[in-house]
Amino acid sequence: MNQALSQSQQQELMRDMENNQLKESLSLYNRVVDQCVRECVTSFKSKKLDSYEMPCVENCSAKLFSATARVGQRFAEIQAQKATQQQN
Amino acid sequence: MSSWFGQQSSGPDPLFLAKTEIEMYNDLFVKMSSTCFLKCRSNFKEPDLNIGEQSCIDRCSSKYMEAQEKVGEVMKRVNEQAEAQQKAMQDMQR
């Protein structure tokens, strides 16, 4: 990942990264919905989420967002460590 | 969908936003189909869905969309909290 990029290439890369962030955010959203429905929704007697399923979905999604953010932090730390190791 | 994006410093291309939104709904539909099939199929003895499976799929779809709404609220809350935290940190650094 050491190639030098021209100014315009760097700008394009930045724009791509911003766009991907958006897509990734929406993709995460869909994954969380699916994951939590799979884990929490167990009965199909009615069309509405019942008194167990609703809080389950809420807590499941909150945890999953937190877990994702935390993994992101650790990931960034490890990447940074690797970068400084390479320099030494 | 504009509530998703909040304040943007340099607005992204609106066509890109529209395409992304469509992709998101398509993805949602694909996942919903897959999950409701998984939850509702009871046997493979015949090619047609039986009555139970049909009403299960109706209810599953309804619940799935309700969950999608609820998760949207949670995500919005999480994002607002993260933004507030970031802002607080930036304020502290001044």
TrEMBL record, chain A:
It is found in: Mitochondrion inner membrane. GO terms for molecular function: metal ion binding. It is a peripheral membrane protein. Its main location: mitochondrion. SUPFAM superfamilies: Tim10-like (SSF144122). Residues 17-77 form the Tim10-like domain. It comes from the Eukaryota. Mitochondrial intermembrane chaperone that participates in the import and insertion of some multi-pass transmembrane proteins into the mitochondrial inner membrane. Also required for the transfer of beta-barrel precursors from the TOM complex to the sorting and assembly machinery (SAM complex) of the outer membrane. Acts as a chaperone-like protein that protects the hydrophobic precursors from aggregation and guide them through the mitochondrial intermembrane space. The twin CX3C motif contains 4 conserved Cys residues that form 2 disulfide bonds in the mitochondrial intermembrane space. Heterohexamer. This is Mitochondrial import inner membrane translocase subunit.
TrEMBL record, chain B:
It is found in: Mitochondrion inner membrane. One of its GO terms (cellular component) is mitochondrial inner membrane. Residues 18-75 form the Tim10-like domain. InterPro entries: Tim10-like, Tim10-like_dom_sf. Pfam families: zf-Tim10_DDP. It is a peripheral membrane protein. The keyword rRNA-binding does not apply. It comes from the Eukaryota. Signal peptide: none annotated. The keyword Mitochondrion applies. GO terms for molecular function: metal ion binding. Keywords: Chaperone, Disulfide bond, Membrane, Metal-binding, Mitochondrion, Mitochondrion inner membrane, Protein transport, Translocation, Transport, Zinc. One of its GO terms (biological process) is protein insertion into mitochondrial inner membrane. Heterohexamer. PANTHER family: MITOCHONDRIAL IMPORT INNER MEMBRANE TRANSLOCASE SUBUNIT TIM10. The twin CX3C motif contains 4 conserved Cys residues that form 2 disulfide bonds in the mitochondrial intermembrane space. Mitochondrial intermembrane chaperone that participates in the import and insertion of some multi-pass transmembrane proteins into the mitochondrial inner membrane. Also required for the transfer of beta-barrel precursors from the TOM complex to the sorting and assembly machinery (SAM complex) of the outer membrane. Acts as a chaperone-like protein that protects the hydrophobic precursors from aggregation and guide them through the mitochondrial intermembrane space. Belongs to the small Tim family. This is Mitochondrial import inner membrane translocase subunit. It comes from Triparma strigata.
